[in-house]
Amino acid sequence: MFRERRSIFQRVREAISPTPLRKRLTLSIHRLNVQVKRLEGTLRRMEAKDRELRDKCVKAQMQKDFARATMYANECAEIRKIAKILLTSQIALERTSIRLETIQEFGDFLYHMTPVINVVGIMRDQLEGIVPEISRELAWVNESLEEIVLEAGGVLEGTAPSEEPTEEAKRILEEAALLADQKLKEKFPELPALGSGEDAKGKVA
Fold it and tell me: 41-96, pLDDT tens digit by residue?
């Protein structure tokens, strides 16, 4: 276990003339925050698309076109599955960025970095097939953070994708998933119940 304790003088000196490792950590935080903003923009577009499809679903129901209403409802369901992943990633990466800023301020490079790297790696893998450009940026951040720890003399444990996440990483991901569920309900209201009578069955057939 390693924990760097700095005096006020050392903190001031670091702020005036940051070390190469801290400069790289600042760059990693910046690039991480950029990806959080990109996820936010992607979510806004998905929210708008969901709203458009939801309106079409309601209109189709009013016209008794239950087959078309079902098609729109299914598309909304797919959008919401992806939105849940994006929301969870956004929240987890926001918390990771805040954690990195704390690490940068207080210098606990080796003590707190493993769960942070763990979360970034997991989010990178989850986003690879949805927003590959963001996944690639997270891969850069992940690699940069690993290099910072290794150059600072630390040992990386539990950061490989195949390994079990650390307890701290699990906690961050679980809290992000719970908060994402809440936000999903706010941003993506429930669809009206689809018709299921004989008329609907006739239309689907």
Answer: 999 999 999 999 999 999 999 999 999 999 999 999 999 999 999 999 999 999 99
Which stretches within 107-166 are classed as H helix?
Answer: 109-127, 132-151
Which parts of 12-165 are beta strand (E)?
none
Give the number of domains in the chain.
1
Residue 145 lies in a domain: yes
Give the DSSP letter of residue 1: -
Rounded to an integer, what distance in angstroms lies between the CA atom of residue 157 and that of residue 172? 17
Query: Which amino acid, 75?
Result: E
Range of the domain at 55: 19-190
Q: What percent of the chain has pLDDT over 70?
A: 77
Instruction: Report pTM.
Output: 0.78
Length, in residues, of the chain: 205
